[in-house]
Amino acid sequence: MFMGLGMPIPDLSNKPGPGRPGWPSGGDLEFKLEIQGPGTFRYNGSRAAGSTSYSIDFGDGQTLSSVGAGAINHNYGSGTFILSINSEGDSGPLDTFQVTGTQAEKNRLIKILNWGTVAWVNLNTAFQNCHGLTNIDKSDFYSASAINLTSAFSNCDNLTTVDFTGWKASGVITGQNMFKDCTALESFKLKGSIKFTGGFNNYWFRNAGASTGCLFDISNLSFTASTGNQGSVQGWFYEAKIKNGSKFDNWTFPVANWSIRQFFYDAHVPDNDATISIKNWTLPNNASTDVTQLFRNLQTDTGSGTNLTLNISNWNFGNITSLSSFMQNAKMSSVIGLSTWIANNVQNINNFFATTSNLGIDPNDNFTTSFWNNSNISNFNFAFQSLGGNTTSTTAGAFPALNGMTVASGTSLQQAFENTHFNGDASFTGVTFPSSAINFSLAFYTAEFFNSNSTIDFSNSNLKSFTYNTTFRRCTVDNIVFGSNVDFSAVTSWLRMFKGDTGDTSYPDQNVTFPTNISFAAASDTREFPNIPFTTCQADNLIRALYATKPTASSNATTFDLTTSAITAAPSVVNGLKDKLVSPGGWNITVNSTDAALPFAYPAYALDPSVYPTGISPTTIPSG
């Protein structure tokens, strides 16, 4: 290097790597730590297999060679020093390491500069509670056929930067709580292959991340070298703070039974207008794989989450059966990629997107048949309850597309769409319901549709329910349409099926269309039903159906409220049927005080009483 007169001498004291003054020259095997003096630094080191014989360069002019297994302590003067462990010529370099000593002594470790080429075996709690550690610099990281990383860096609460892009650990990993409680972490990078064979690997990043969040870049991660079922890979980012722009893309899992439940449970995204990318995941393709609660309670620190976007494009759920509470109470406002999801065996969507109250589904990026095909939904309770519940007429999204879904026998849709907000109609076209009756109570209770002439559409549905208890009560929607294939024969409870309480004007009237073949045969509770206005034709049809299928009142099926509807006036057939329902049928039927006029008029004649001594009727027409 040529330097002319007058040129400043560069400051190399902070330069990382071999160009830094005092950097030892023990070769690639060296494990290098940066130590802050003055004071004593202690550790335990050994070799897992065979005799231990390694070199130490303390970085202050003192060295040791042929060191055996056991405790090492060294007293440093003032300054910063590079401690180098292992050297190319060592016959037994250590592969097991743990910082020890008092808390003050542990805090003297400030950086991990280089892992060396040693195949690490045991770093169990190696750096736990090292509060002075701030950086883990990029270097290749190798492992033996198995490595223990349990709590290796847990509670390193001043650790800000970790770069594991040189990850080459090909051995079986056990690493529960590895970075747990690293509450100053600002940047974390990892890519490569990770191999599990059944050890404990829960909560790698639990409660990790600075108050402003950690920028995670954990992409191109492959678990395909893992063998066997993995029951403990849960909650990796449980309560972690995740910064805007973080990426968890391109993760690939093997075909096995894994438990990765609660992976992002209660994670926080502190930034406004944040986007987190979690694209291209091929999940463990096994029916028993547990992904329940995977994003549950994901939120912003303010709790509003109104501008949080999750890009979850191209997820392949394979044969996974349960998505229970998958997104429950997550506070994102947008999910990118629903239209790209693929699944082959979805069965349980209990609380699937429940209380995602800020979410609006993009009508052009909604669920497709690629997700619902081959489904057999056995648990639908609360699946979309309160989806969009905090949204407005300008922010609410589309109704979840259900075309292609098959609902299993015995399924309940109780409160499935309760307290939801939508801009767009709800359609059940393409949904295959079972031939047995299901629970549909409270399904749309307090739901609100903002679009004009909004409709909940069962016109092409084979729905059969045994209860409509408060199903559409306080639901703000213009139209509810039931087609002739909807089977009402098993419905026991019609209690408060529509609108609000009697006399309550807080909710608009719903325009309900029933088929002419409606049946009340199984009715045991008709209180405050139907309690909405019908056209005279519809009201007449309801009276005819009630008389045809349940002419005698029973239990709580004794009232039929058509107060806001008019039936055809006497002497119509319908009016006569109504009278028979009241007596002897025992029904209490209330209709509008003014009946609708007959659709024809009787002619006025001067009748000869000797010819027509009994008067006339609709079937007796005078002549002459």
Description of the molecule:
By secondary structure, the protein is mainly beta. The chain has four helices and 32 strands. It has helices spanning 103-106, 369-372, 536-549, 573-582; strands at residues 31-46, 54-57, 63-67, 70-85, 96-100, 109-114, 119-122, 135-136, 141-148, 161-164, 167-168, 172-174, 187-193, 215-222, 251-252, 275-277, 281-282, 309-311, 315-316, 334-336, 421-422, 426-427, 438-439, 448-449, 455-458, 465-467, 472-473, 479-482, 498-499, 511-513, 559-562, 588-591. β2 and β3 form a beta hairpin. The longest helix is centred in the last third of the chain and has 14 residues, at 536-549.
Fold topology:
Blueprint: E1 31-46, E2 54-57, E3 63-67, E4 70-85, E5 96-100, H1 103-106, E6 109-114, E7 119-122, E8 135-136, E9 141-148, E10 161-164, E11 167-168, E12 172-174, E13 187-193, E14 215-222, E15 251-252, E16 275-277, E17 281-282, E18 309-311, E19 315-316, E20 334-336, H2 369-372, E21 421-422, E22 426-427, E23 438-439, E24 448-449, E25 455-458, E26 465-467, E27 472-473, E28 479-482, E29 498-499, E30 511-513, H3 536-549, E31 559-562, H4 573-582, E32 588-591
Parallel strand pairs: 6-8, 7-9, 8-10, 9-11, 9-12, 10-13, 13-14, 14-15, 15-17, 16-18, 17-19, 18-20, 21-24, 22-25, 23-26, 25-28, 27-29, 28-30, 31-32
Antiparallel strand pairs: 1-4, 1-5, 1-6, 2-3, 2-4
Helix pairs in contact: 3-4
Q: Ends: how far apart? A: 131 Å
Number of continuous helical runs: 4
User: What percentage of the residues does DSSP assign to strands (E)?
Assistant: 15-25%
- Please provide the count of β strands: 32
Please give the radius of gyration in angstroms.
36 Å
Biggest sheet: strands, sense, closure?
13 strands, mixed
Mean pLDDT: 91
* Apparent shape: elongated
**Helicity, as a percent range:** under 10%
Low-confidence stretches: 1-26, 618-624
Structural class: mainly beta
